[in-house]
Write a structure and sequence with these properties.
about 0% strand, Addiction module protein, CHP02574_addiction_mod, mainly alpha, flat
Amino acid sequence: MVQMQEILELSVAERILMIEKIWDSIDPGTIPTPDSHQQELDRRLNRYTKGETSFVSWESIKSELNAAK
């Protein structure tokens, strides 16, 4: 087992890579989705299916943010 002191001795870049490897090792199927999250996802999918949702491109968002500067 890796000790905390060993982790703290790593550079920031090395620690970030370690976090990334740990994150990638987690199977998303093993993490339960809270009911409230599933309900919100279902609500949003329902709105999308009914055509009630509009989308904005990332380019439009970036333009708006740059214009606000």
